[in-house]
Records
---
Amino acid sequence: MPATPIHEHLVRVKTGSAELEGNLSLPAAATGIVLFAHGSGSSRHSPRNRYVARVLQQGGLATLLMDLLTAPEDREDERTGRLRFNIGLLAERVVGATDWLAQNSPTSQLRIGYFGASTGAAAALVAAAERPQTVGAVVSRGGRPDLAIPVLDRVKAPTLLIVGGLDLAVIEMNREALAHLTVQKRLEIVPGATHLFEEKGTLDEVARLAQEWLAAHLGTPGPQQSRKSAN
């Protein structure tokens, strides 16, 4: 049976003083929504994250791939590389997008998860610590969760860390972060993969692991839906 087509919509997300563009995809009867947090000079057009997003969508999860920097900020970051490591700013944008999803139809009924890559993973974990009652799961791909160590003990969402087996320095950073997490957690090392998971089959494994983790933890009603059901 052919895969069900999933339509992508351009949205504008107001977060603080910034208005950010994103691509929102809503499969029929979605069981949750996954906000992608990009990092290290990437954007919502990242082919790796778009591939993972398609796998999640085919598994029944909605996705929001959103730029965390405005166009002028992105141009500045291309010159300086400074903003991609501003975890506070990136996390503030992720929190703003989380609140936008929780307040706007048709996403307000969906439990929210995060998929963070590189420094975006640190931003996602900081945001999860800021919204512990809203965020239901976190997945990090080749991430820098060590940059969020000061707040990891406040993260309540089950967290999966995925690292390439050949990405030795990042493996150690993830092991350090794993020790600070106090929730359900797992570190998955993909054999033969480097930092960007460009080797054959390695990104497929990332997508499989992420889909299983997120589907398992986002299949329950979100906080707003629970409150409405109780009224």
Note: The beta strands are 8-15, 18-25, 33-37, 62-66, 112-117, 135-141, 159-164, 185-190.
---
Amino acid sequence: MTKSAEISAPRPVRLNLAGEVLNGDLTLPLNAHGLVVFAHGSGSSRHSARNRSVADVLHHGGFATLLLDLLTESEEHIDAVTAEFRFDIPLLADRLVGAIDWAEAHPDVASLRIGLFGASTGAAAALIAAARRTGAVRAVVSRGGRPDLAEQSLEAVVAPTLLIVGGNDEVVVEINQKVFERLREPKSLEIVPGATHLFEEAGALERVALMARAWFERYLG
């Protein structure tokens, strides 16, 4: 069992990627043995209570996390009204690739193996980024994701991939089952019984977090 890690307060970071500034929160436990970059989706942000809950479990497992807004502040304001950016998967993937490159060059985390945690449309961005940075990304976890939106990149993903879906989220279960067949080994599809798309049921999100931590421990630790 992993010992609880000593955790510092989240540190705000600003990533300048191709002239656009993205805001993030970097949390570094003492002696971290991996970095998990979160890819939010469907209008969510680094302030997502669900992803922060998952991140907290990862922190206590000794993982650093980067919770990053994949949209700029102005894009977020536009998206809140038009929803035009949240399904721009190529844009989200480009930003995530930029974050991976930033992490590999940042002195505080450059030595850490990188994993990606994607939710909803962010899962597609995570898989595309993993396909484009095969040497950097060592593991991917998708929560209630739309990995099908990664399209032709799926076959190029070499990182071990865990797909987690709520058992009552029937459409997304079917989508993930089809995607699972296209992914390379090692891979796993976990269906949480009784859970809906947002895993709001008692204990459901905790199960997601523990499964994600176990996956990252296996492939990043």
Note: The chain is about 35% helix and 25% strand.
